[in-house]
Amino acid sequence: MNEIDGRDLDLNLLKVLVAVADEGSVTAAAARLYLTQSAVSAALKRLADAVGAQLLARRGRGVELTSRGRRLVDRARPHLDALVRAALVGDAETGPSRRVVRLGLSDSSEGWLLRPLIAALRAKGPNVRLVVTAVQFRNVGEALVSGRVDLAITVADELPAGITRRTLFHGDFVCLFDPRVAKVGKTLDRDRYLAHEHVIVSYNGDLRGVIEDAFGVIRDVRVSLPSFASVGELVEGSALLATVPRLVAHEIRRTRPALRTRPLPFSQTGAPVELLSRTALADDDVLGAITAHIDTIAARAAKVAAPANR
After folding, report:
1. Could you tell me whether strands 173-177 and 241-245 are parallel, antiparallel, or unpaired per DSSP bridges?
2. What is the CATH number of domain 173-263?
3. pTM of the model
4. What does the alpha-carbon distance between residue 286 and residue 67 come to, in Å, rounded to a whole number?
5. Residue 130: closest CA among 143, 138, 139, 121
């Protein structure tokens, strides 16, 4: 867009784009702005022609911003808000504006990722605010498609169209226990494993965990938790066994060094931990920079997660 085009750009077009971004629908934005749907569509076309780039992409019955559209909205919104405030209260002073990035994480990924990611963003950028949302394999597809998260890291099954997925590493499970109380021996065999009481993590809120689902065995489950947050506390000082991802066990043992792990008495291939994003945001520079940090951190985590590291 040249200088003359920029001076001639109708700022009302930006207001229309922001409304569509907020509502996720041309029809809903038209109702909000008291315009016809055709008027909103025409305004969006004029803006796209002026910018010289596609700003919106279809998503089901609604629309979502392309990465160029998101950048334009992120840059335009604070200025439009400031103009409104200046007109209403005479105060256009604003603080520093930073991009908000919504990161979906399984609870098993928080420990190995968040601390180093925040440190990397502080040292090298980009300058963003992170909103972390809990996701897991059953709901991550909906979270991405709906725009509740921009990036996600978790184990995933089938995903909707329009989602890009890439494996970060493969991680297996180990048995976490307190050797001062739980007597499992140097080698944990199947009979000894099943003879103990267990604490499990179930996203269904039932007594079935990963072992029941994967191998069809039934354990003596004493307690079922919704996340891994309290596993270490329950295992320490008790005879309970916990079957957890190797990386989770590593993080728990950082603060509870008395705990130990043993390989499971079941054959495992290791589930892929994946980085997921919407295809429409593939050329988003900010998300690309964050992804590069995630790749570096994940490469270090992969060394811990590898099954060879017993």
Report:
1. antiparallel
2. 3.40.190.10
3. 0.68
4. 9
5. 121
Hey, which CATH number is domain 3-89, 3.10.450.50, 1.10.530.10, 1.10.10.10, 2.40.30.10? 1.10.10.10
What mean pLDDT comes out for the span 7-30?
83
pLDDT 10s digits, 208-222: 998 998 898 999 999
**Beta pairing partners, 34:** none
> Model confidence over 247-260: pLDDT tens digits?
999 999 999 999 99
Domain 99-168+272-305: which CATH number of 3.20.20.100, 3.40.50.300, 3.40.190.10, 3.30.750.200? 3.40.190.10
The pLDDT value recorded for residue 201 is: 94
Note the helical H segments in the chain. Answer: 3-8, 11-23, 26-33, 37-51, 67-89, 107-124, 140-145, 190-195, 210-215, 231-235, 246-255, 285-305
Q: Residue 277 pairs with which residues in a beta bridge?
A: 151, 164
